[in-house]
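# nightly structure sweep
# worker-07 picked up a monomer target from the shared queue
# config: single-sequence mode, recycle default, output format = structure tokens
# input follows
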Amino acid sequence: GDAEAAFRLGWLYENGRAGGSPDVQRATAAGWYARAAEAGHARAAERLAALAAEGVTPPGGDRITRLLAAAEAGSVRAMLRLARAYAAGDGVPIDLDAAARWFERAEKAAKDPALSAYARAALAALAVDRSRGAKLREYATGTRNSK
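# output follows
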């Protein structure tokens, strides 16, 4: 049960270096990534979620479950993907508070300045969207303050 070895086998299959048809290789990669992810390997959980998004069905769990596992294990890319999913309602109901929390966690956890900047920019854009949404709700419901 070495998680890193399972991840590397998954990578070999995903990248066509293990033989067999591409569909079989990708499905086999998902299986190896699932083993590694279950052992707490964040990048494996991230790759498993990415394969699921491309239609490769991993054994057990859906894409959001896998992204959540990878994000909670510390994968900044998974945090960003999960935040975008919550912001857009992609696989989950729209939840701007959850999106903001995951963008904030990604910004704090990112060691790569580009990922940190992306998370910060996405969080700022989300704040603008939330502000516009609140103003539209106030206008539509007639609860807008007259100042």
